[in-house]
Every structure is written in C-alpha cells, then in structure tokens.
TrEMBL record, chain A:
Segments of this protein annotated with the region Disordered: 25-61
Compartments where located: Membrane
Keyword Acyltransferase: no
Protein name: Cytochrome c1
Top-level taxon of the source organism: Bacteria
Organism: Jiella pelagia
Chief location: membrane
The keyword Transmembrane helix appears for this protein: yes
Gene3D superfamilies cross-referenced by the UniProt entry: Cytochrome c-like domain, Cytochrome c1, transmembrane anchor, C-terminal
Segments passing through the bilayer: 282-301
Annotated signal sequence range: 1-23
Automatic annotation (TrEMBL), chain B:
Described purpose of this protein according to its UniProt entry: Component of the ubiquinol-cytochrome c reductase complex (complex III or cytochrome b-c1 complex), which is a respiratory chain that generates an electrochemical potential coupled to ATP synthesis.
Subcellular location per the Swiss-Prot or TrEMBL entry: Membrane
Superkingdom per UniProt: Bacteria
UniProt keyword terms in alphabetical order: Electron transport, Heme, Iron, Membrane, Metal-binding, Respiratory chain, Transmembrane, Transmembrane helix, Transport
Membrane-spanning residues: 42-70, 90-115, 127-148, 154-172, 193-214, 246-268, 289-306, 312-331, 343-361, 373-396
Source organism of the structure: Jiella pelagia
Cofactor note text: Binds 2 heme groups non-covalently.
Protein name as it appears in the record: Cytochrome b
Domain Cytochrome b/b6 N-terminal region profile: start-end pairs: 13-224
Cofactor: heme b
Main localization (coarse): membrane
Signal sequence coordinates: none
PANTHER family from the UniProt entry: CYTOCHROME B
Entry keyword annotation includes Nucleotidyltransferase: no
C-alpha cells in the first residue's frame, strides 16, 4: 500500500482521466485519495466551500431518463434494424476514437447480415498480421475472425492524442456504467427487471451536452472539458459533443437526429456488451416454465406424502 | 450415522457389499430411514438447499476453470471469452457468479433459523461451530472468487481486504506479502487466489460432511425446541423430508433462475466490467453485498482506542463479529431452546435482524457522516446482542410453558385455536 500511493498520485496527474471531474475534495472514502478526480478538483471544491456547501456534490447531477428498449423485460429481443443503424453510427463516428476490441466481425452476423456481407464489411478494415516467413509484420484486409481494430496502438497513445483522457473501449461500456438507483428504487427494480441502466446512461450522456452550466459550475470548469450534467463522475468530461443532427445517413428512413443516433448506438453497445442477451431471456422463459411446473408437481407429491401425518 | 440401523440389504450384490463396505447402509440410515421431527417448517429446508448450491458451484466452477486463464494479462479477456464464445459460457458464468450470492442468501437464512430456534445449544455446540467454520470458508472462497475476473472491483477489493492484515503490528506486513506474493496485488496474487479458490470448496465439502455427521448424531432441532421423545415425534427422512426439501429447492431455484436469466448483473457492480487498472482507483470501493454488514463494522471504528489505532480496531471488530459466533452456545444462558417460547427474546431477535440489514445498507454507503456513526451504533448493538442481551435475558426472562412433546404440540395445533388444548402448545404459530 505504501508503495502504491505515490504511484497512484503520479498516475492521477499523468493519466488525466477520461473523467476529468471536479469537486471531489473532501469526499468520504479514504480509498479515494489518489483518484484523478480529486487531483484536478481543487477549484470547484474551493468554490463550493465559499458558498458554504459542506456537502459533497453527487454525480451525475441529473439522472438519466428511462427509455423503452426492445431488449428490456422478460421477452426482450434485439431490434436488428436499430442495431444495424447503431453499428453505422459506431463505425462512422465513435470508432474514430473508441475501440471495440472484444467484438469480432463474425459476430456481426447476429445483426442480420449475411456471411458475404460480413466478409465485405471486414475487408474494409486493414489489420496487421504476421510475422510472415521473413519475420515481417504486414497489413492485410480484415477477415470475419478479426476483431474491430482499435484506433490507437495503446492507452498512452490514446491519452496523448486526446488531451490526456484516453477514450474508453466500448465493448463492455453498456454494462460498465450504471447510475446508482438508490433505495427504494433498487427494490422495485427486482419487479420491473430493470437492467438497462447502461444504455439509458449512454443515451442521456450523448444527448446531454446542449445545456448551460449553472454559474457556480461554469466558472470552475477545466479548460478542454465539456459540461454535461449526466456525466457519472463529474460535472464535465473530456469528450466533446461527439455527434450532430444529420451527421450519419440512415438508409432506412429513421430520423437523423442526435436523439435517434444516441438510442441506436446505445442499443448497439448493449448488444456488444451482452451478445447473448436475447438468447438468455428466451432460455430463461423455458427454464422458468419448467421449474414452476416441476415445483407444482413436487408440491402435489408433498401434499400426498404428508396426508395423514399431522405436522 | 448413529443409533440402531434398520437396513436390511436385499439379496445378492447389496448383501455382498454390505458385508465388505456398508456404504448402502450408511446412505439408507442417513437419508432414508433417518428420523426427522414431524413439525419441521420450511426454514429447515435451507440445509438441503445449501448442499445443492455447493454442488452447483463446484460443477459450474470446474467447467469455468477449463476456460479461465489465471494470468493478470489475460484473465479479464478470458472471462469475456467465456461470456461470448464458449458454448453456454454466459450461463455457466452467470450461474456461478449469482450462485455465490444465492449461496449466501441461503446460508444467512440457515444461520438466522439456527439463531431463532436455538439450534446452537447443547448438545449441538460442535454442529454449530462446524457451521461457523463453513461460513468462514465460504467467505474466503467468495472473496477470492471475486478477484478472478480481474475487474476494477476485483483488484481494488483485493487491495483493501488484504490491506486489513497490515493493521496487525509486526506480523501484519509479512502476512500480507505472503498472501499477495509481493508488495501489491498482481499476477502472483491472482495465481494463488485461483489455486485457493479451487481448493477451498473441497475443504467446505469436507467440513459439510462433519456438519451433517454431527447433525445426525444429535438429531435436528424443531420449532418447539423440545427434543424428540418417541418415534411418534418423527417421520422417516424419505419420503417426508426428501419431498419437502425437494419442493423447497425447486422454489428457491425459481428465484435463482429469475435473477440468473433476467437480471444477472443486478447483484454485481458495474465497475467489474472495467479491466483492473492499478493506476486508477474507483471512487467507491465496495465489496459484494454479502460482506456489507462486516464492511460497515470495519469502517465504524474511526477513532483510536489507547494503543489500538482505528485501522486495527476496525479489523479486530470485523474479525470479532465472526469470532463471537463461536462462543454463542455458551453466551446464551436460557434453558429454553426455541425463541417461539421466549416472548422478550423474540423482540430482540428481530431487532438483531433489522440491525444486521441496516449494517448491510451502511456498508454500501460512503464512509462519511452520518453513516459512520450509525455504523458504530449498529456495531455496538451487534456485539451487545451477543455479549449482553443473550447472557442476561436467559437469566431474567420468563419463558412460556413448553409443550410436553412434539406430538402434543402438533396435535394441539391441528385441533384448532378454539380448543383448550391449544393453550398449551405451539404458540409459535400464533400472533
């Protein structure tokens, strides 16, 4: 632990976060001392102190709106047209900075593409392979078994090219972000099967840029960060507003708005994070029916066995 | 396993085997003819449910280990490989991860049932102590298992929890370095945790055998707390207990399947889908939900007590909260076993349950006011329950009249509340 602390502090400065955030000073957990948020957060906390805000600000400032997703609920399924649109948004916009290293081109057949289409899609990418017989690395067109190439060779390069904040890989992001639900909402979630906090968050973040920061926050924003009240670990993040209306052309006539782009790419990211989601829910339905019937039969046998034995 | 055996082997192979290795006799005496009290309720089915989940965890775990790679460079990706490319891998992994949670749900119900019906009292002290040992082994296994996916919470949870040992003067640092295989959580830690995570469940299975053996020597308790007095008080394990346990298991599996198939990440932490990064600390490090009450007690000690600094104090309190369970059979001075006949203790029991739940909630909160001092209140009550309430109450409380026998209680209950006989027995079924 003693050796870790200086390393962590150094990292906090060098590895400027993807979450450049403010005003975490004085927050409770002692484990947090070295987080990057704290490292850059002095201005705002001073500000908060002046205003007599003893309390730690809680992020996100605003909770994401709950949307209706085709994959929510016990009969959740993918909207393939939506996933295809989401893929288009990812490919044309997000992939400039964000990788998706756990998803292979072959997986795209799940989105309703034929094998030939996937081959053609993969071939548009250049993939480094090798070494060949001469010991040389070489470039070749992608094949279905290749994974999406990441835009940067490593995290340090990604951070260096993006003002110190490395854009996170999107493969699992839809499961790696969830705004805390709090009591008693999390209890009700058991009944509603709410598991879509990730896509709700991504949609809220992508559509949450156009708001004016309150004056107290506006003065303390770090240069190079963008105010977004939906950002999970601070008032502003290093990612600029990534997409605008009509930036991506939809061949199927879906509205070309930021809102629609955000919905589609969030759904696509949920698929990328949990490709077996629909299969899981369909299996679950059969398993539940089996177990409930089995339980009923066992209960009948139990009643029969215990008849005549007072208990 | 104890007492007279009524096993009569059929001719041929079974008779031959019985004369050489009486394994069929053991199974018959333990799981067929074994007498169980006729008045057991569904709270008593969780032992069987726990056995089922131990088997389930071992089976899914063995298959997962065929695909998992315990190397810090590829562990995270190997888990994702299981989720994406291994046939039914997503189901195996979600079963294993949520299976651990349901294992703990079942064990907490099992423990509270034991507390309520006084299952720890003579002559079942050894049975109880073996159970506490199983609980400790479960905690170690679950903690190490949580490290294996090598996500952010895996890494930082391991860092925090192994850091506990540094609180002890002199021996603390060497112990921590031995656990970690170095000075910080790294590949060496992951390797030894994987090895131990594979070993401990078999140790649990071993202690479970002793636990069941001890159970079959003393016999089960029952909701009245009155010992079995005649064969009228019992029914044979098969088919009565078999079918009742089986029914309860399947109902429990329905709940398990609901979480497993519809909300498999409900009990997990989203940060664990971010690969471990030693350079980036999560803003809140929280353990899995089943450790939260103990985590709250750890963090409740924010002040130094004489030579004991707050860190060591917290660690001692946390370990002490388990250690005190070992002494429970001797801390409870009441001669009445079942809480159903202890009107005052019944109130304290439910306060204890509520306090445990409150501590769990506090464990998930950041370590700031008012959560820390609420945790302190909860911690004091936790220990007060065992060290003050139980010893004192047993001496001053006037229990209700006990039924003469299990059968008497059962017959009185079935005769209906209106009859005078109802006054003598089974008050646990009344308001």
């Amino acid at each position: 632990m003693k050796k870790l602390l200086p390393a962590l502090l150094a990292a906090g400065l060098a590895f400027a976060p993807m979450s450049i955030a403010l005003a975490q000073d004085g927050q409770g957990p002692t484990e947090n001392t070295a987080s990057e948020e704290a490292a850059v957060g002095h201005d705002a906390s001073a500000e908060a102190a002046e205003e007599g805000h003893a309390e730690t600000p809680h992020y996100p400032l605003e909770h994401p709106e709950q949307l209706n997703w085709s994959f929510a609920g016990p009969f959740g399924h993918w909207d393939l047209a939506q996933l295809q649109r989401g893929l288009k948004v990812y490919k044309e916009v997000c992939s400039a900075c964000h990788g998706m290293r756990l998803v292979a081109f072959r997986n795209l057949e799940d989105l309703g593409y034929s094998e030939a289409q996937v081959k053609a899609f993969a071939a548009e990418y250049t993939v480094q392979d090798g070494p060949n017989a001469d010991g040389e690395m070489f470039d070749r067109p992608g094949i279905p078994s290749d994974y999406f190439p990441s835009p940067f060779p490593n995290t340090a390069a990604a951070a260096a090219a993006n003002g110190g904040a490395a854009p996170p890989d999107l493969s699992l992001l839809a499961k790696a972000r969830a705004v805390e639900r709090g009591f008693p909402t999390f209890v009700f979630d058991l009944g509603t099967q709410y598991q879509e906090a990730g896509p709700d968050y991504i949609h809220a973040l992508l559509t949450g840029y156009d708001q004016e920061p309150p004056p107290a926050i506006a003065d303390s924003l770090q240069p190079g960060t963008y105010y977004n009240p939906y950002f999970i670990s601070g008032p502003a993040l290093a990612m600029p507003p990534p997409i605008g209306d009509d930036q991506v052309e939809y061949p199927d006539g879906a509205p070309q708005t930021i809102d629609q782009y955000s919905r589609d790419v969030s759904a696509f990211m949920m698929w990328a994070a949990e490709p077996h989601l629909a299969e899981r829910k369909a299996t679950g339905f059969v398993v539940m029916i089996f177990l409930v019937v089995f339980a009923g039969l066992l209960f009948a046998v139990k009643r029969r066995v215990w008849t005549g034995t007072a208990h | 396993m104890s007492g007279h055996s009524s096993y009569v082997p059929s001719k041929g192979l079974m008779q031959w085997l019985d004369a050489r290795l009486p394994l069929p006799r053991l199974v018959y005496d333990s799981f067929v003819a074994y007498p169980v009290p006729r008045n057991l309720n569904y709270a008593y089915t969780f032992g069987g449910i726990l056995a089922l989940f131990l088997v389930l965890q071992i089976l899914t775990g063995v298959v997962l280990a065929m695909h998992y790679a315990a190397n810090s460079a590829i562990a995270f990706d190997s888990v994702e490989k299981i989720m994406r490319d291994v046939n039914w891998g997503w189901m195996l992994r979600y079963m294993h991860a949520n299976g651990a949670s349901f294992f703990f749900i079942a064990v907490y119900i099992h423990i509270f049932r034991g507390l309520y019906y006084g299952s720890y009292k003579a002559p079942r002290e050894v049975l109880w102590i073996l159970g506490v040992i199983i609980f400790l082994l479960m905690m170690a296994t679950a903690f190490m298992g949580y490290v294996l996916p090598w996500g952010q919470m895996s890494f930082w949870g391991a860092t925090v929890i192994t850091g506990f040992f540094t609180a002890f003067p002199l021996i603390g640092d060497p112990i921590q370095q031995l656990l970690l295989g170095g000075f910080a959580v790294d590949n060496a830690t992951l390797n030894r945790f994987f090895s131990l995570h594979y070993l401990l469940p078999f140790m649990i299975a071993g202690v479970v055998i002793l636990h069941v053996w001890a159970l079959h020597v003393t016999g089960q308790t029952n909701p009245t707390g009155v010992e079995v007095k005649s064969s009228k008080d019992t029914v044979p394990f098969s088919p009565h207990a078999t079918v009742k346990d089986g029914f309860a298991m399947v109902v429990f599996l329905v709940v398990f399947a609901y979480i497993l198939f519809y909300m498999p990440n409900y009990l997990g932490h989203p940060d664990n889908y971010i690969e471990a990064n030693p350079l980036k600390t999560p803003s809140h490090i929280v353990p899995e939900w089943y450790f939260l009450p103990f985590y709250a007690m750890l963090r409740a000690i924010t002040f130094n007590i004489g030579p004991i600094d707050s860190k060591l104090g917290g660690v001692l309190v946390m370990f002490g909260s388990i250690v005190v369970l070992f002494f429970l059979p001797w801390l409870d001075t009441s001669r009445v076993r079942s809480t159903a006949f202890r009107p005052v203790y019944k109130v304290f029991f439910w306060i204890f349950v509520a306090n445990a739940i409150m501590l769990g909630w506090l464990g998930s909160k950041p370590a700031e006011s008012p959560y820390t001092w609420l945790s302190l209140v909860g911690t004091i009550y936790y220990f007060g329950h065992f060290l003050i309430v139980l010893p004192v109450l047993g001496l001053v409380e006037t229990p209700r009249r006990l039924p003469g026998s299990i059968t008497e209680a059962v017959l009185a209950k079935n005769a209906g509340g209106g009859t005078p006989a109802g006054a003598t027995a089974a008050p646990e079924t009344k308001g």
